[in-house]
Amino acid sequence: MPTLYSFKQKDVLCSALGKYVKRASRESIKARGRFTIALSGGSLPSQLAQGIVEDESIEWDKWFVFFADERAVPLNDHDSNYRLAEDALFSKVPIPRDQIFAIDQNFLNDTQELADVYEKDLVRVFAAKETVKIPAFDCMLLGVGPDGHTCSLFPNHELLRENIAWVSPIEDSPKPPPRRITLTLTVVTHAHNIAFVAAGQSKQDILVKVLETPDEGLPASLVNQMGGDRVTWFVDDEASKLTVFPKKEFKL
Ligand SMILES: O=C1O[C@H](COP(=O)(O)O)[C@@H](O)[C@H](O)[C@H]1O
């Protein structure tokens, strides 16, 4: 069963998220010598950055950073998830640049090629598909939209059934911009640690649906169900106001 932590203040939420990521980083480096993390866009990069940028104990040189989803736009575009992470995090911490995996700007006009080239980056870091059937990220950081989407996996979309590709293109995202790439549900749910972050009133109804009525088949519910006790929710009291899902006290 997933764990739900709810915090009165957003800065406390961010610092708890930071502690969770720092622990995942420490344990992964101890066990496997590196830390592989996939970041979402939206509000997540700044929430994460608030909790970790000032920490001097993090072994940034062991971090390998991917994007859980990305929009098919230039990296300096306001819609780019990379740009959000660059501004909030990468510009402030010494993660080696060749260990930050952005989409290849040469393929913005062809989302299938964009996804295939991005998948090759995963293959280089996690080993060939013949050896590793599904890459296991150490940490997957996710947001959830009011419609239940997570990454660029949208409700009732055929992409939810993709079980071969690690990275897929999407040309009809209901949330703009429409052209994107995303890690597939199989990859997202295979991670060692999966955290959702949701704050504010706009997330109240979707938290009730995802946490209390998992049978609706929403993308975030599917991640929640498939990830089970590897899933942790970091939310604020505003977002969790309507859910009766049991909350735990945060201790790390
Ligand atoms: O379009 C997207 O939206 C989701 C949710 O964003 P949030 O700001 O409501 O948390 C985000 O996780 C995803 O990466 C992004 O491309």
Automatic annotation (TrEMBL):
GO terms for molecular function: 6-phosphogluconolactonase activity. Keywords: Hydrolase. Residues 9-233 form the Glucosamine/galactosamine-6-phosphate isomerase domain. Its EC number is 3.1.1.31. Pfam families: Glucosamine_iso (PF01182). InterPro entries: 6-phosphogluconolactonase_DevB, 6PGL, Glc/Gal-6P_isomerase, NagB/RpiA_transferase-like. The keyword Hydrolase applies. It catalyses: 6-phospho-D-glucono-1,5-lactone + H2O = 6-phospho-D-gluconate + H(+). Pathway: Carbohydrate degradation; pentose phosphate pathway; D-ribulose 5-phosphate from D-glucose 6-phosphate (oxidative stage): step 2/3. One of its GO terms (biological process) is carbohydrate metabolic process. Hydrolysis of 6-phosphogluconolactone to 6-phosphogluconate. Belongs to the glucosamine/galactosamine-6-phosphate isomerase family. 6-phosphogluconolactonase subfamily. PANTHER family: 6-PHOSPHOGLUCONOLACTONASE (PTHR11054:SF0). This is 6-phosphogluconolactonase. It comes from Neolecta irregularis (strain DAH-3).
